[in-house]
Amino acid sequence: MKIAPLIDAIKEAENEGHNIEYRLIHTGQHYDRNMSGSFFEQLGIPEPDANLGAGSGTHAEQTATIMVGYEKLLMEVPSDLCLVVGDVTSTMACAITAQKMHIPVAHVEAGIRSGDWAMPEEINRMVTDSITNYFFTTSEIANENLKKSGVEDDRIFYVGNTMIDTLLKHRSGFIQPDIWNEIGLQEQEYLVMTLHRPANVDEKNTLKYLMDEIVRNSRDLQLVFPVHPRTSKILHEMGINHPRLHMIDPLGYLEFNYLVERARAVITDSGGITEETTVMGVPCMTLRDNTERFETITVGTNELLGTDPKSIQPALDKLFAGEWKKGKIPDLWDGKTSDRIVKHLLQLSG
Questions:
Q1: 4-160+333-348 belongs to which CATH class?
Q2: Which is catalytic among the residues 18, 30, 196, 344?
């Protein structure tokens, strides 16, 4: 979602005669087809030039596999710049490897912080930004985070959000998923749920309490829950079910956002979804104690509920009373972020 618009912008710059080329490296960290392969097809991303095949494993195992594979690739064919996106293990591993081979690093979505060191993503962000040369940011908050850590102004480029480039490009092409007709969904008459963070799903009693509160306080709305693989196993072990609760397989990007755009609200613990709901004007309830995307709260439609299940009832009551904030779209989330990034890359290359 973050890479696709960058590839489009690079190709456009090439067509305009600029001297810029790219090589797409798939680390293989996200190996489930519904959560990786279909995204390539739906978003028009070309076949990767290399796949490092990292697969599953512990954080250390994934990091090591990616670093070994990426180092070998760079030794065979070096690049002038390593561009990494987001905050996954691949982001950190490739940044470290490139720097050790004296290849500068550019980080897209740099500077965001949750302040929660228990999140693997927070460690990835901090390590990556500590060795990054060029920082492409989504918000003024991210800019300030970087400046506080000692990054010079001339290495920070406030460009916006590439995920929103993808969202706006594909919004008119969202696809109605099969579940829509299978259970007779209607606009504004259902909630979309996603849960995958360990704080919510690893402790069975906590997860059951969360699910019970959501079901109990969602009135007569249908609950559509595309279940992350790690959560599916736990839910089945616990035997959680309800006539209005529909646990389905993970959806493609276009199908999932079709549901989100038409939902009464979204209940999630994902960071990225809070950005998409903000742009689409959909109320969003985040079951986390912190967030790295503060602009979705201060500007957008998102509210941070925390991880206490008792927070669900007042939030849903507020929604049903028609008192949820409307929100607006943050600055530079306009679908042109990737173009700005490529323009900066061309200037940096001299």
A1: alpha beta
A2: 196
pTM: 0.94
The two tokens of residue 100 are 């050790």
* Dist CA 84 CA 86 (whole Å): 7
**Nearest-CA neighbor of 208 among 230, 227, 236?**
236
The structure tokens listed for 196 are 């995958």
Closest CA to 138 of 119, 125, 150: 125
Domain boundary assignment for the chain: 4-160+333-348, 172-320
| DSSP tag of 264 | S
- Answer yes or no: 196 catalytic: yes
175-226 residue pLDDT tens: 999 999 999 999 999 999 999 887 787 778 888 999 999 999 999 999 999 9
Nearest Cα residue to 70 out of 37, 46, 103, 93: 93
Look up tokens 């999932």; give the residue.
Answer: 256
Residues 6+ positions from 12 with CB-CB distance below 8 Å: 339, 342
Structure tokens, 94: 């490739």
Domain 172-320 -> CATH class: alpha beta
